[in-house]
Structure formats: C-alpha cells, structure tokens
Design goal:
24% helix, alpha+beta, 9 strands, VOC domain-containing protein, globular, nine-stranded antiparallel β-sheet, single chain
Length: 119
C-alpha cells in the first residue's frame, strides 16, 4: 500500500454526487469504485471510492488528476500526514509544516502523462 491522498470536503460527499460530477470534469467510473482519466488513448486509475475518494499516486500526473478531481468536487486534496495540495498560478504546490514546495506546472504535468516515478 502506497502513500494515500484524500479528497476532503466540509460537507460529506455522496457517491451519487460523485458519479454525477466526474464525467463533466473528464473522469470516468470504472466498475463500482474506481475513478479513471484518459491519456494517450488509454485510461489510467486516479482514485477509488472507499466511502471517500482516495488515491495512491505513482506519478505527478496522478497527483495533478487528483487535484483536478478535488477542485471539480469543491474539495481539498490532503495527504495522510496532513499536507495540503493546491494550485497557484498554474503550479501545483504542497503546503506542510509552514513551508510550501512546488511540484511543477500543472499543464506540463498533465501533458506528460502518467509515467511512474522512478524508484
């Protein structure tokens, strides 16, 4: 099991609301619990429904997609250690313990696709 990122809202997210919101945002539901996004002619996992949306990203692309999904749902993207992922001036940032670290430019990450992080 990898590092989890969660899509968190102040008001609870119902599955019916999720299912209605994902298609206009460019996501698909695969099976009864997996949210996927397309790239390069294929679909790639972004998150799963476990009573809430949870992702275990293996690439910056997946982090960017999770952030896009959170935004479409009016939610925040939060890491399991409490860090907050956000977008400022087109750049994905992570805020934790009073500091902010840039991950990269959102559009460039999305365009690059879901290449896995190197070990």
């Amino acid at each position: 099991m990898g590092y989890e990122l969660r899509v968190v809202r102040d008001s609870p997210l119902a599955f019916a609301e999720l299912a209605k919101a994902i298609a206009p945002a460019g996501f698909e539901l695969r099976g009864s619990d997996e949210i996927v996004a397309g790239h390069g002619g294929g679909t790639h996992p972004v998150a799963s429904w476990q009573g809430q949306l949870v992702g275990e990203p293996g690439s910056d692309w997946q982090v960017a997609q999770l952030l896009r999904l959170a935004t479409a749902l009016g939610a925040r993207l939060v890491g399991e250690d409490g860090e907050i992922y956000g977008l400022r001036d087109g750049v994905i940032e992570v805020a934790a313990a009073g500091s902010v670290v840039e991950i990269g430019k959102f559009e460039q990450i999305i365009d690059a696709g879901p290449a896995a992080w190197s070990p």
